[in-house]
Specification:
single chain, alpha/beta, Rossmann fold, 2 domains, 14 helices, globular
Amino acid sequence: MKILVLGSGMMGRAIAYDLCHFSNFDNITMVDKDRKTLRSAEKFLDRKSINFDILNVKKLKKVKRYFKDFDIAISAIPYTFNYDLANIAIDTKTHFLDLGGNNDIVEKEKNLHRKAKKNSVTIIPDCGLAPGLVSIITKDIVEQMDKVESVKLRAGGLPQDPKPPFNYQIVFSPNGLINEYVEDAMILDNKKIIKRESMTDVETIAFPEPFGNMEAFLTSGGCSTLPHSYKNKIGYLDYKTIRYPGHCEKFKPFLDLGLAEEKTTKIIGEKIVPRDLFISLLLKKIPTTGKDLVLMKVLSEGFKDDKKTFMEYTMIDYYDEENNITSMMRTTSYPVSIIAQMIERGVIQEHGVFCNEEIVPCDLFFDELKKRDIVVEKTVKEL
């Protein structure tokens, strides 16, 4: 089988790295519109078994011709393109996976289910960390429990050596980060799906030393389709992003001032987009390199065999120094590569549009993560 990776940035090259080391694909091709970025990825991967090519995904006719040569395509580019790419994939009978990032785009992809099923194509959005890994953990909880009262999803990418004032490191698109901070968070509460303002409801969450007490607050996108998928099976569900203490209090005022706005405004006669200015400042003032880590904790209460039960899933993942791969790259990109390999090996055979919680086998997925030294520790105890 032949697989195509769209995008040669941090996530795209981590996907390609995993495919090279664990998959059985006959042909792995990576494309990007930017020749410089593509050459950087080629140098990073240092693998002759990968083909590299220039492709601008805005040119849909060319993308369609390109897709026809591949069995599976993975999108590691901004989520704004994913609906059009999913549509093209169905027309060319190419299985398609993406990293998600926007609830509205995923909903549009879900509406392609009948068309995908008719063309014998599998489309799986949201295959990253959150949504993605946390979605599969939620599925595992629902399968383990007889009744689920609550699921609290917590995850965040952080620097190992935090620098004030924000104690943060840009480990993925700053535009995506801003979206998570400004778009409404979705909460499932007693069969009702509620919108709440992001960067609110700050709580303390404990991890082993050297981390200790961290903070977590509501952000958008992390639970994606879970409130809809489990509306009748989970009493309460929310997602919060983990940061070092004080981050929310220091960062949120800049958003409240309007620096995330995308409408053009005039300043001393010059037209500017506040978000563009803000992103430029973030990239100048906040570290973009350095050793990172990802913290994740999923907490759930419910009933199993008529006994009140508590389940906790914990992951602490570190920067891969040997291969120069960030933890955010590992925990975001390896899941989508694993799921693509499940399609290639025939583990996933259903056709249509499915989210992770609907189609990915939990135990096999966790086993594959372990092969990559990503360990999710599960604790179950009666209350």
